Automatic annotation (TrEMBL):
Annotated function: Acetyltransferase enzyme. Acetylates histones, giving a specific tag for transcriptional activation.
Domain CBP/p300-type HAT span(s) in chain numbering: 357-737
Keywords recorded for this protein, A-Z: Bromodomain, Chromatin regulator, Nucleus, Transcription, Transcription regulation, Transferase
Organismal lineage: Eukaryota, Sar, Stramenopiles, Oomycota, Saprolegniomycetes
Protein name per its UniProtKB record: histone acetyltransferase
Species, as recorded: Achlya hypogyna
Length: 737
């Protein structure tokens, strides 16, 4: 909860969960150093404060999701013009008396942040804050003033939207109370107080004319093996047809609907016999343990802890615990049943899962992980955050594998220079970097990168000592929220710094916004986390480069156009072939251009040798495309270059003049008295860095495999609730790779 909110008295609602004393304070919760017994859930070892936090988060997140959409709508409303989206700045807006008149300032941006931080107890609290934004504006600005009139309009708009929200909630509540299905048998989850919750349907595309993603509630048609799918509109009309080399009968197509098989799994507590969602309970159903291991839900654990430490009256007065399904828990562990699905499973087949969460277990830390982790923790302390916050971030190199990838035959065919052509394969090291934060003691994966490192033996000389940041994805759950952007940017810089330390000379980034519904690494992003526009993404990377320069990690920045393609286009004979990365922009563009029929130029080149002409046309089109998207194709030198002899000074001390770096040799020769040279040491973070050993984690070695695995197992990241669960499962698979 933000300070702004704490200061302001707010009405209390008897039916809302009380606020816990531990509002996101990881420092109090060092449960990861205990010796563990086999457990089915990390909550088995959670403290009282953590359990209460988990319950609070589960219940508040339900409120937050629809209201985030409502607030975002107001923020983007065309009459708003950004007036109400940030705190009033009395200096910039020249209204020095603002805070004398307005005692309880509020703005939509703050409300949105509070919603994301799960700071609101009830929808009424959110509504009160939204009304406050506009009543403040009505109070400070006289009628007729543009801000006053806009506030009148938006307040009206809000009341309309809010009424419709309340109506929908009422309808949902009725639907919920009537819901009864084989999955839940009418039970309510004791933790989140919901019945069945549906997963996002897998990403299935219609093979018909529309080519769209199949929607959740719509029926569709598929072959019995589920391999081929059509939406109801595009379902083939013919009685028999071929698809590829497969013959399909229309009669064999099956009508399907996502919703049916997509309900979140439940688990029964062996203590209270109540049912909870596996996601809510952070219950790992993939661990196969002995029949004797009972599962105890978080509510029972909390009751047990409360009865140990807290006077019973106090515990009873806590509305958090007053769940409608509350049963008196039994603590007798001999009274175990076999009702939980785990107990029905086979005997121990895998080693017991002892450390579901712990990242700093005595497994060998990787050099890259340790370097980045130190970097980011120091950065957080530098920002003024506490050591506890800093130490809540973990960086892990999750896999490092050697890949030999084929080089596009079009690149081999079309790009030859001075007798040199691309080889048929290129070799690189693919690394998966995952960043976690312990939020209330529970790990959440919130930042990830796939990089390709091309060493001197990669097979393509222009690739030597270059690293390509192939994919980068993040989730908005980092806390505290105000540090999020800078932390995510510093994570990229930390990687670049490590690459520089190891002697890499350039980093390449293709800043490519994801398309709607297209997840790069995480399956299902939060709805409120908008995909950044191309412009915002470019600004984000430019900010990274600027900061990296200030930290002596980067030295200038170029684009793939300025560094390679411009020279190629103008036919400079000494121009080298451009670097070629697996899955990069230009090979894909080349392929697109080659495969697109050249309608416009066909006539013109009819009397000339077609192949040669086509080659030039193709190249020209690729150049045009590269020039048009040059802003998104960053080339970042990680080492300075001597301004005189153009030699790259790889982790060498050098001289710095106003015009650039100067190497020792050139500095000795050109004793130009006008030039003032300053000695520039190698940055302090550059140590003798070696690469990590290679190791594979088949679950996530490649981005597409990770995404597919998460999609198939419903490891979604669209809510904090699910992100905690999915991270737990991700860590489980990493451990059991
Ligand atoms: Zn149900
Ligand atoms: Zn639940
Ligand atoms: Zn269709
Ligand atoms: Zn229970
Ligand atoms: Zn020089």
């Amino acid at each position: 909860m933000s300070e702004r909110n704490l200061k302001r008295p707010r009405p209390s609602f008897a039916d809302s969960p009380s606020e816990v004393e531990c509002d996101w304070n990881m420092g109090k919760l060092p449960f990861h150093h205990e010796i563990r017994t086999p457990s089915l859930s990390p909550l088995d070892h959670a403290s009282k404060a953590q359990l209460r936090q988990q319950l609070q988060d589960l219940r508040r997140e339900k409120i937050a999701a629809p209201l985030l959409a409502l607030v975002s709508k107001l923020m983007l409303h065309r009459t708003n013009q950004g007036i109400f989206n940030a705190p009033v700045d009395p200096v910039r807006l020249v209204c020095p008396t603002y805070y004398d008149v307005i005692k309880h300032p509020m703005d939509l941006g703050t409300i949105k942040q509070n919603l994301v931080a799960l700071a609101y107890v009830s929808a009424e609290h959110v509504a009160a804050d939204i009304r406050l934004v506009f009543t403040n504006a009505l109070l400070f600005n006289p009628p007729g003033h543009v801000v006053h009139e806009t506030a009148v309009l938006l307040l009206k708009e809000f009341e309309k939207e809010y009424a419709s929200y309340l109506r929908k909630e009422r309808d949902l509540a009725i639907k919920r109370s009537e819901h009864h299905c084989p999955h839940c048998q009418g039970h309510v989850c004791g933790l989140c107080e919901e019945k069945c919750i549906n997963f996002e349907p897998p990403l299935v595309m219609c093979l018909g004319k529309c080519g769209q993603r199949l929607r959740r509630h719509a029926a569709y048609f598929m072959t019995p093996d589920g391999q081929l799918n059509w939406c109801a509109k595009c379902v083939p009309k013919l009685p028999e047809f071929t698809f590829g080399d497969r013959v399909v009968m229309k009669a064999e197509l099956v009508k399907a609907k996502f919703q049916e098989e997509l309900t979140e799994p439940w688990v029964q507590c062996d203590s209270c016999m109540g049912w909870v969602h596996q996601v809510c309970a952070l219950f790992n159903s993939e661990i196969i343990v002995d029949d004797d291991v009972p599962f105890t839900c978080a509510l029972c654990r909390l009751h047990a802890l409360e009865s140990q430490y807290v006077a019973p009256t106090e515990a009873q007065a806590d509305p958090v615990l007053d769940s409608p399904e509350k049963t008196e828990p039994t603590y007798k562990h001999d009274d175990m049943s076999t009702h939980s699905p785990v107990a029905k499973k086979a005997k121990c087949l895998k080693p017991l899962f002892k450390d579901p969460l712990v990242l700093d277990t005595p497994e060998t830390p990787t050099r890259l992980g340790a370097f980045m982790q130190r970097w980011i923790r120091d950065h957080l302390v530098g920002l003024g955050e506490s050591r506890t916050v800093a130490d809540s971030v973990f960086v892990k190199l999750a896999s490092s594998v050697r890949i030999t990838a084929p080089v596009s035959e079009y690149a081999q065919d079309h790009f030859r220079l001075n007798g040199y052509a691309y080889p048929s394969v290129v070799t690189y090291t693919s690394k998966t970097i995952l960043v976690f934060q312990q939020i209330d003691g529970i790990e959440v994966c919130l930042f990830s990168m796939y990089v390709q490192e091309y060493g001197p033996d990669c097979g393509i000389p222009s690739n030597d000592n270059r690293t390509y940041i192939a994919y980068l994805d993040s989730l908005g759950y980092f806390r505290p929220r105000h540090a999020r952007t800078s932390v995510y940017q510093q994570l990229v810089i930390a990687y670049l710094a490590f690459a520089k330390t190891r002697g890499f000379t350039h980093a390449h980034i293709w800043a490519c916004p994801t398309t709607r519904g297209g997840d790069f690494i995480y399956w299902c992003h939060p709805v409120h986390q908008r995909n950044p526009s191309k412009e915002r993404l470019l600004l984000w990377y430019k900010a990274i480069i600027a900061t990296a320069k200030a930290r002596h990690v980067a030295f200038g920045h170029e684009t793939l156009w300025s560094s390679h393609f411009a020279a190629l286009q103008s036919g400079i004979s000494s121009a080298p072939l451009p670097p070629y990365f697996d899955g990069d922009y230009w090979p894909a563009e080349l392929e697109r251009v080659v495969l697109t029929p050249l309608k416009r130029t066909k006539k013109k080149c009819a009397d000339e040798p077609p192949k040669v002409k086509a080659r030039d046309v193709i190249k020209a089109e690729v150049y045009r495309s590269l020039e048009a998207s040059k802003d998104s194709l960053f080339v970042i030198p990680l080492q300075p270059t001597c301004a005189h002899c153009n030699q790259m000074l790889v982790n060498m001390p050098h001289w710095q003049s106003t015009t650039g770096a100067v190497c020792d040799v050139c500095a000795a020769v050109c004793v130009d008295s006008d030039v003032h040279l300053v000695r520039q040491p190698v940055p302090s973070f550059v140590e003798n860095a070696a690469d990590d050993l290679e190791f594979s984690c088949p679950f996530l070695d490649s981005r597409s495999v990770l995404l597919k695995n998460c999609e198939e197992r419903h490891y979604q990241f669209d809510t904090l609730r699910r992100a905690k669960y999915s991270t737990m499962m991700l860590l489980y698979h990493m451990r059991h790779a």
